[in-house]
Design a protein that fits this description.
Blueprint lengths: L20 H18 L10 H9 L16 E6 L9 E3 L5 E4 H18 L3 E5 L13 E8 L12 E3 L7 H19 L10 H4 L13 E8 L4 H6 L1 H16 L15
Length: about 260
């Protein structure tokens, strides 16, 4: 006869585990908060909230998955006068050509392109009347020029920035010119000549050739007379000023708005 003392106590059946309602609610709340936090007005290139949610809910590739690279942003840099004429010409004491605006423009433009390519952007280096300007589409296009070799007075030093007076998107055009003005002045220390901008700048030919949705600006980086040293001996500094201005615009960085400049006929 089996002793009741040795019998194991009957087991109480365990209830099946159910999800904790509070934890589920909390998880959903965190997910929604993350989704709505990811979309902000400063997401410059985000199309809408629906697209943001779609991207976040898409499964991320595993360690063995080959991901498709994201398309690069395109930027256009025009080397003023290149492929067309010399622009302003500087002469030495013997009356021989000493320096041309085209050479300076091309040197600066080439460095700006290198700077932006190194940061992952797709950059087109364009000639003055480049056929690619017809209908050109990019997030931004900047044309680089310089002012006269002639000595005018001691005030003829500094830079100018202008956008098209007929731009469709005044706000973005103002942001581009404001970014270029602010960053270029910070990097180079040169003075901004807002009141000496001419119609040759505001009515620059490329403004009417490119796609109307491309935001563009023209910059004269200095005077080839009094600013010659920084333009030719510190070209990397000049190029960095333009680079920082373009990045300020593309990245929607903080900068005080600048009204489209007036011009003298």
């Amino acid at each position: 006869m089996e002793s009741t003392k040795d019998k194991p106590a009957p087991r109480t059946p365990r209830r099946p585990r159910t999800p904790n309602a509070f934890a589920s609610t909390l998880g959903i709340a965190i997910l929604l908060a993350t989704l709505f936090t990811a979309w902000t007005p400063n997401s410059f290139f985000a199309s809408n909230l629906q697209e943001q949610m779609r991207l976040m809910l898409t499964p991320q590739p595993g360690p063995n998955t080959v991901s498709t690279p994201q398309p690069q942003l395109r930027i256009g840099i025009v080397a003023g006068h290149t492929g067309n004429d010399s622009g302003a010409v500087c002469f030495d004491e013997d009356g021989q050509t000493d320096l041309t605006e085209m050479d300076v423009n091309l040197s600066i433009a080439g460095l700006v392109r290198e700077n932006l390519v190194a940061r992952g952007y797709q950059v087109d280096l364009l000639n003055e009347f480049d056929t690619r300007l017809n209908g050109y589409r990019a997030v931004a296009l900047v044309s680089i020029h310089n002012d006269s070799c002639e000595y005018v007075n001691d005030e003829a030093t500094g830079f100018k920035v202008a956008a098209s007076l007929e731009t469709r998107d005044v706000n973005r055009a103002q942001r581009l010119t404001a970014c270029l003005t602010d960053r270029y002045q910070q990097v180079t220390g040169l003075t901004f000549h807002a009141n000496s901008i001419t119609s040759d700048m505001t009515e620059y030919h490329a403004f009417s050739e490119i796609d109307p949705n491309t935001i563009t600006a023209i910059i004269e980086t200095g005077f080839l007379n009094l600013d010659r040293d920084i333009l030719t001996k510190q070209t990397d500094r000049v190029a960095e000023g333009i680079t920082q201005g373009i990045l300020c615009f593309i990245n929607n960085e903080s900068v005080l708005p600048t009204a489209l400049p007036t011009f003298t006929p």
